[in-house]
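Loading example: each entry is read as two labelled lines plus one structure line.
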Amino acid sequence: MSSNINRKKVMKKGIIRFIDIFKENKMGVLGFYIIVFFLLVAFVGPLIYSYNPQEFAKGGLIAPPTKGFPLGTDDMGRSILGALIYGAKVSLMIGIFATLISVFIGTFIGIVSGFAGGKFDSVLMRITDGFMVLPKLPLIMILAALLGSSTRNIIIVLGLTGWTGTTRLVRSQTLSVKQRPFIERAVSVGAGKGYIMFRHILPNVFPLVFSNTILVAAGAILTETTLSFLGLGNPLVPSWGQILRGAFTSGAVSIGAWWYFVPAGLCVILLVLGFTLLGYSFDEILNPKLRRY
Amino acid sequence: MNLSYLSKKLSHSIITLFIVITINFFLFRVIPGDPFAMIAKAGTLSAEYKEELSTLYGFNGSLPIQYVKYLRQLFTFDFGLSFKYRKPVLEILGNRLMATLLLAFFAQLFAIILGTVIGTLSAAFRGKKIDVAALGFALFIYAIPAFWLGIVLLSFFSVKLGILPLNGMVVAGLSHPTTWAYIKDVVHHLVLPVFSMGLAICGGYAIIMRGSLLDVLTEDYITTARAKGLKRKDIVIKHALPNAMLPMVTIIAINLGFMVSGAIQTETVFSWPGIGRLVYEALMARDYPVLQGAFLIISLTVIIANFIADIFYGYLDPRIKYE
């Protein structure tokens, strides 16, 4: 009981110290605000600016910005601003859920492989390396095409293809944590393997996993956009990639209808940048190897 | 570099190759859906014709038998027939490979040079304004989808200014009087895709280069050089840069998969007749044999490049043989 209270105290102290250091990191804070901005757009935006993707709107086709349509219209006369607001939620959701799958798989394989060691470890690592080398985008495209492009399938495909980096990272960290005396102590008092892996090793690799998660999310959002642009997204759910596909296939690019593709692209860049900045700043704070600079 | 290092790397490459082949095999078999649905665009296929197609594309028999058959076909470079073109997949791939290699080579060259310069500037002026600007630029570029960069450049240079061609590799329908005229036409069409793709992939290189150089700059021999009173510029360029370039060799090879992604997007936007565009077209037409073949060729290229990079790395860094 007392150890539990102690653990909470230590964690609380750690989090407070982390926030103090984080506040000094300008890049990280900027990333944080960008993500908060898009969360607000995704969840508060629809309350202010109503939009229904299924409904054919009254605007002109690929019409430039006007008062009623602040960012112009698409090739079906729908408001681009509305699609952007709606798309924010889609991009965030797909990015976050796909990342959770990837990180879960990656962490699990990484800890088990690193803790088990020996032949088992080297076989798993060979397979991981094999996956790492695979060109991801064609693989994802083929999987999405074969499974069918529902939002759920896209999340699964992105999740199943994005775990290798996390696995490598978690495994190497597990190898070093495994050598620490407290693990030896846990073994000697008869703690089970599962208990050691998930009660002792996991909390110690977690900080790294955390910063890695944010970077994986950046990649997942970028890939989802690309996938939708290439016509493999769910056409019924207007994500940012769908808007960009619409702009490309409707010929908006060749008539210079910038409002159709510039804002959507900037949204993708900003959100990905937000995640990248936050991820790198966490990495800088939590990764002891980087702290010496 | 010794033999055991070489054979270790070779065996890794072969294992990876088998993973690729196996994934490729199962992808198109275990997954739900009828692979011949595309051929039967109008109406359904008769049972006999379906049977015939199954035999032709190696879809009959138990999975292990199919697998052995598939392996045998691969070793004789038999990639099957395209659903769409009704031609051998290998022939279609061969036609497209040169265009992609041309684009990828120059884009990669451009990206490596630009990435190295940005990363070096960033690390050399760590914490200064130049660093913030260079790192900010690299991270920004890193966040840009390659296809979007292509679209924006296209709408500016080709649509607004009209100084560069919209798409393709040569002017469609034009017969070139001389080889020189042909080369000039291709180069004219190559400029924008190379710039677009190179820019899209240079961000990653810049970030890696910065980290690698910062790492090297903390080493003892740099402190020694500084103590000898050498100029800062000389220390960075002559002493630190050669060592910092080492990880770049590996990163360039590992990033080839990333480059493939860039090529698919860039070729799609610019209608560049390469493998990337082929993947997109095959996907739209659900031409699975072509997709399968393209995926295999792309993976094979990446695996070979990785192997070469490993050998090259072992040759460049004598420390490797003691590991």
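The mean pLDDT of chain A is 83.
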